[in-house]
Amino acid sequence: MITLGTYSIGVGDRFAHQAKAQLEACILAGKAGIEIIPVWNKSNREHTIIGSEPSSTRAAADAAVKALGWTKPYFCDADHANLTTVDWFLAPCDFFTLDVADYIGKPAEPSSIDSFVGRHSELVGVIELEGVELEGMGRGIEITPELLRATAAKFLFAIEEAGRIYRKIEAAKGKGKIIPEVSMDETDSAQTPAELLIILAAIADEGIPIQTIAPKFSGRFNKGVDYVGDVAQFGREMALDMAAIRYAVERYGLPSNLKLSVHSGSDKFSIYPAIHASMKTFSTGVHLKTAGTTWLEEIIGLAEAGGDGLALAKKIYAEAFDHSAELCAPYATVIDIDPAMLPSPTKVSGWTSEQFTAALRHNQGSPAYNPSFRQLLHVGFKIAAKMGRRYLDLLEAYESVIAKNVTENLYARHIAPVFLGLEK
Prior knowledge:
single chain; 424 residues; alpha/beta; TIM Barrel; 2 domains; eight-stranded parallel barrel; two-stranded antiparallel sheet; 17 helices; 10 strands
């Protein structure tokens, strides 16, 4: 059985040009004394928009590993896989994010719900969880018969769908040959720790040997910008979730390395200390899933390079501004853009490299930083995709300056605060 290490990071590489720079960040982590396992992730939607295919993600990862002499594990993630999209991920991928958020709330067969509730009467009552008392929260979570049935009614069909996806993958890849993750983050409401424990019992019943699970946490995880919400509440949820996972591993025989996966995890600087503290409390790890932050560093690198690189960055913004409604629609639940804060393309056309990068780079201490500008460019990768070789040629021409930004961003702003507990 292949296993995911304690600390791992999902590294999105939309145009398959930054794998070496991303891997360099993991190498820096190794020099700092901690092993971070890279998982290159790219969703079906991103492949479709860009016109790429999963084999390109694998090829880029393999080439980076060979070039840099990486001898530790690494993986390629079929991000947000379902029964209709999974086929072309089967050959190149060994990590599969089973996305069943669309099935949450759809009713399972009444007999399935009755059977689950009858099978898990042990969940009714106060469940004592080890470790959470250290966070000043008390040790117990209470599950009433009504909560058990209501949770089964809400989630059981989705978990049964995850089982169907997993069995299709296992039939093609072989038992123990993949790392499965179940993703439930793209849904309307956060799952409570009690619901998570019930969900984990159902996943165990389905025979899915998950190594990571991505619940939805409270607060907003907008693309490319910091967490919006109650940081203390997030910390309590994370601690209780980790305690629930530990309980489920011992009670239901799930893999011992099962850990939380934090989706849309890039740039959530305010919650990184809470994540690090919970990992220390429970002697566990997390999978921090990032994606668009690397694409934004490509644009920063182009702008920083000046000349035709800066001109192309301005062109991408102008096109994104003109097509903002179309670009933002698929991401409406994970962006908060204030149109009044978006500078006109005419104004941006006169910016220097320093002005453009200061507006885009995620430095919250800078008065020039513009989160609306950053979020619009985050969803604007479709513009670059339509440019084809014009964009890719400049990525290659300015590889050194772009790579520096990609590596520094991933290591200093993400890996160091989450996994090493260092300030960004």
